[in-house]
Amino acid sequence: MSHPVDIHVGKKLKQIRTLRRFSQTDVAKRLNLSFQQIQKYEIGSNRVAASRLFELSQILDVAPAYFFEGLHDDTNATPKADPSIEIVSALAAINDDALKTRIVTFIEDVSGLTVARQS
Fold it and tell me: HTH cro/C1-type domain: from which residue to which, for each copy (predicted)?
């Protein structure tokens, strides 16, 4: 059975990977791993070593502490739903690339942030 901290770190990994629009394969290649290993990290069945967590933080451009944000001692607490994941999923479901670009531009304008785009 997976430890609650490993599950939390895995969820945070999936969240930031999705927000950065990286596939599991993209991350795996940067770490010289298989995408299945990234899957195992994300579901918490495999623990992420500290050195690997540091590498992930550099690849995904977050502080290592990001993976522990929201972690509480109360392991029975229901994690809050993150609407960001829902937005990314909805955006990914749109097939029209021009429309996607317009939506991302709108979000950038509203947020005042620029999203790094993969080519």
Answer: 13-67
Residue 46 carries which DSSP code? Answer: S
Amino acid found at 8 = H
Would 76 be classed as within a structural domain?
A: no
For residue 27 the two structure tokens come to 């991350």
Q: Is 35 exposed, middle or buried, given 0-12, 13-18 or 19+ CB atoms closer than 10 A? A: middle
- Total domains in the fold of the chain: 2
| Domain region containing 102 | 81-114
Same-domain check for residues 7 and 60: yes
CA pair distance 20, 76, nearest whole angstrom: 29
What digits encode the pLDDT tens for the residues 60-80? 999 999 999 988 755 545 556
